[in-house]
Fold this protein.
Amino acid sequence: MSPRPDPDWIETRRRGAARALRRAVSATGLSRHRTGFGWTVVPAPGAILASTRVASWDPEPDYFHHWTRDAAIALAAIPAAMAAEPEAAAFWRQAVVDHIRFSLAISDPNRRGPELNPLKATATGAFRPYLRPDAELAALGGPAWLAEPRCAADGGPDLERWGRPQFDGPALRAAALIRLGELMPEAQGPEAARLIARDLDFTLAMAGAPCLGPWEEDPARRSSFTLIAQWDALDLGARHLGRADLAEAAARLAGLIAGAADPVTGGWRESLEAAPGALDAATVLALVQAGRIDGPFALTAVRSRATMAALEALFAGLYPLNLGRAAPALGRWAGDVFFGGNPWFPVTLGFAEAHYRIAAATGEAAEFDRAEALMAVVEDLAPEGDDLPEQADRETGAPSSCLGLSWSAAAYLAAAAARDQALASR
């Protein structure tokens, strides 16, 4: 029999994840001073920190920024956070309002970037090479703001060098807001409608164009993660707004994604440019965010399942810590070297959520058992306390990279909610 997570741990960790995510949202009581840049940042209401931890790549990464993609994933997890912590419902309702206003402000097409990087005057010599070039900042305006993967937590432009452009964030945010609007009035109204329309128009313009993928690594390409996120937003938006142009673009994008079909595994390749057999766990995470129950991008679809099966088999043999486990801790892709190339908590949790959702849709006991085994892996690797790390060391299982990642908290809440649905359907 496959291992199962302790039900008491599930509930304790659920409330802890809700608290951890809440601390990252509208964290106006926090302050971050980057000594080498001479840069102090206080988060604005509505900003969602990728991590509340103060670190400077020493060795933990500095994730004290607002990433549009990560924030959209957190936004999608708000109903699960509210269910886990009912006493915090008022906080989350205000957070949605603040996040919409914050997102409108940072993507304002009439806003202009600074002519010169303001940190030039304060950065030390060792940090000056990491400053964003003046020309990049001066070019910011109009829809270019929506191609920014992240901004400063106070809403200012990102003043550091980083991988750009990225087109997944607005698509994920639009889809999350449309779905959230079906559940709570705070995600409705004129401001929400304006942000959704802005994000959808940008997604329409950029649909199928090469950009950096969710792991922010060169070269620019048409990653399956971004393409599926764009398709999901356009398809949802077409039905939400009754716009034929969005429906037509979604159909074209579905045809484009078909070109990523993998002849080796029967799944989806990492990108249209990827070689046969080259898979990436991000593809499954995009399918999970879309959460469809029918069509070619449903979690129950043959290619979705084949992608999951191939990646699980890959990582079962790749990481020493998976030896003897009934289910593997999962990483991003075979050649990943970031912080040593380890299993990721958001990925393992994303796969658990996928299996739970398949179990809920089909009633397949084997799918539920697989999800339970993956959650048992997370239980085994997760440290004490509310925070969940980004990674676990591939050999020892020790927490690695960022030790408190907001995406991990959101992924846990989503997986636990999917578990509830699977249990209810049995």
Q: What stands out?
A: The longest helix spans residues 406-425.
